[in-house]
Here is the input.
Amino acid sequence: GIQVEQSPPDLILQEGANSTLRCNFSDSVNNLQWFHQNPWGQLINLFYIPSGTKQNGRLSATTVATERYSLLYISSSQTTDSGVYFCAVLYNTDKLIFGTGTRLQVFP
Amino acid sequence: EAGVTQSPTHLIKTRGQQATLRCSPISGHTSVYWYQQALGLGLQFLLWYDEGEERNRGNFPPRFSGRQFPNYSSELNVNALELEDSALYLCASSFVASNQPQHFGDGTRLSIL
Here is the structure.
């Protein structure tokens, strides 16, 4: 089956810093989503991005489908950005396959 | 627009009992997905329902089952509960098509004592 790997597994930042999270996948996929899971367990949609680049405020994402990777950029990080970031790929038209996540901690 | 809603928020059961979790999709979405997030195991696909039919299931035993109702809401049933079933169960919905994003509810946290 398809493998989805995320790096780094853990990231500790001071408020105001920028960061880049990476998602590699081992096969062609139909779509790719980025999520933020907050400390209460809520999984929040960040981007639906099968290819190209999108921006939403301080966050942006780029997917290069031909090279099988996606990047999530967080600029001017805030303590509320803390949590776990997951990428997930849609494989074989139905289920999402999730990566192992990047745990981000932002300190004031 | 209301999002995906799940109930209950928390559920405490003992080994051997049965649990029923409920999910209401976003209006207009016909597909409902269930995922399990157990400690240390990540998010794993459980079941996919569309138009009232089970379309696919993940690598889980048959005691995990469910159904989808005519209004597209869904139930997940877990029989003969085991300690390892303790997890956050997340429901998602989407329009049925491979190029549509899935939207998640806030989850049901199931604890087995």
